[in-house]
Task: inverse folding
């Protein structure tokens, strides 16, 4: 027995030595002090999924109706562009709408979240109204974005604000935190501030350029309506229909609190299918079919994915935690139902991916034919995202832009 134990010990020691020999040799070659090797610390480090957090600070006064409509149409394209990095990132988006004192509201915020359906459902409610004296509560909008959003503390996260508007900041409010102070705090938090000016107001140009300079970001100017690329495709309607059918395969489990959150997500999805354009729904379908978009599609505690992937066993879920329609089923019926939904989801997903690729090829051909992409809202926004995200290790191909 002692001989056998000794042999096992020698084998284990040899394996450790061979595995970590290069590290040991390097350490011995670069120091004269005694070297202590901890095999646990030498284990390979697995990089986490890269993260992107974006907050749009959007002027919602009366003159901004065109660009607000652009934001509603293009938010999914922006998400898809960010998702096209060579290592698919985890994406969260938030919104701060601002107007001015005396309007219906000064600011209204949608928290940073990976649930883009719920974010989009709230964006759909934003209408252009108010304003009138040219300067707006830009200071408050920026303050809320930098201070009141739940930004990730990780300095490797690409954290960015896009300030979008057509009027300069009110600098005469005595109880206002002025934007230079907010920009300094953003810099400490590792948040980049980019500015997008709608229109050609000279005072706004100077203001927006200074904000971008202080925020280590980019400034660019677009037309009052945004100059966005808006091309309908023959695939939009079918993609929208497939996306709706795919959404109908989602079923959730959990306690009462979980189900309340899930109901809100389902309500947001229902709203966008009822009110959003076919083109916007097609863009959402394209994003959801990406690796980054899977989290938005599924949400939390999605039953079909949890069971099919083996992460959760059906027997371990209490009956009351299951969807109401499944609670009266036998175990065999539940298993068969989940398998049927999983099969349908796979088939729909395959069809959707093929159509999404056809749509993308169609759009690229049209954009190339038109030749005006370089001056568009899309191109300028995508250029900032891909260049700035590269500093955080996110690599994009030259043709990453999605439309």
Result:
């Amino acid at each position: 027995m002692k001989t056998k134990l000794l042999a096992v010990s020698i084998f284990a020691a040899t394996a450790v030595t061979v595995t970590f020999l290069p590290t040991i040799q390097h350490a011995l070659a670069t120091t004269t002090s005694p070297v202590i090797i901890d095999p646990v610390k030498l284990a390979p480090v697995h990089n986490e999924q890269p993260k992107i957090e974006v907050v749009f600070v959007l002027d919602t006064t009366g003159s901004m109706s065109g660009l607000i409509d652009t934001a509603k149409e293009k938010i999914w394209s922006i998400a898809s562009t960010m998702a096209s990095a060579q290592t698919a990132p985890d994406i969260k988006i938030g919104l701060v709408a601002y107007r001015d004192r005396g309007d219906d509201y000064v600011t209204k915020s949608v928290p940073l979240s990976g649930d883009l359906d719920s974010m989009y459902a709230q964006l759909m409610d934003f209408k252009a109204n108010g304003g009138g004296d040219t300067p707006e509560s830009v200071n408050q909008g920026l303050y809320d974005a930098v201070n009141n959003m739940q930004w990730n503390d990780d300095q490797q996260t690409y954290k960015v604000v896009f300030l979008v508007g057509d009027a300069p900041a009110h600098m005469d409010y005595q109880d206002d935190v002025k934007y230079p102070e907010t920009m300094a705090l953003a810099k400490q938090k590792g948040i980049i501030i980019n500015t997008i000016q709608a229109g050609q107001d000279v005072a706004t140009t100077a203001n927006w350029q200074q904000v971008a300079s202080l925020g280590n970001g980019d400034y660019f100017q677009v037309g009052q309506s945004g100059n966005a690329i808006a091309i309908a495709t023959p695939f939009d309607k079918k993609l929208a229909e497939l996306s709706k059918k795919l959404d109908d395969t989602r079923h959730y489990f959990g306690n009462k609190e979980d189900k309340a959150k899930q109901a809100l997500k389902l309500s947001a999805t229902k709203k966008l299918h009822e009110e959003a354009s076919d083109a916007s729904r097609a863009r959402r379908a394209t994003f959801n079919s990406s690796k980054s978009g899977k989290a938005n599609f599924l949400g939390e505690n999605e039953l079909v994915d949890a069971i099919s992937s083996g992460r959760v066993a059906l027997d371990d879920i209490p009956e009351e935690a299951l969807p109401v329609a499944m609670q009266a089923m036998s175990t065999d019926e539940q298993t068969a139902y989940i398998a049927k939904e999983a099969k349908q989801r796979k088939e729909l997903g395959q069809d959707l991916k093929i159509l999404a690729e056809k749509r993308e090829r169609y759009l690229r051909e049209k954009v190339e034919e038109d030749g005006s992409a370089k001056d568009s809202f899309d191109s300028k926004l995508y250029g900032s995202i891909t260049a700035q995200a590269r500093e955080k290790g996110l690599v994009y191909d030259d043709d990453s832009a999605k439309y």
Notes: The chain has three domains: 1-46, 51-229+376-390, 236-364. The CA atoms of residues 261 and 300 lie 9 Å apart. Residues 236-364 form one domain.
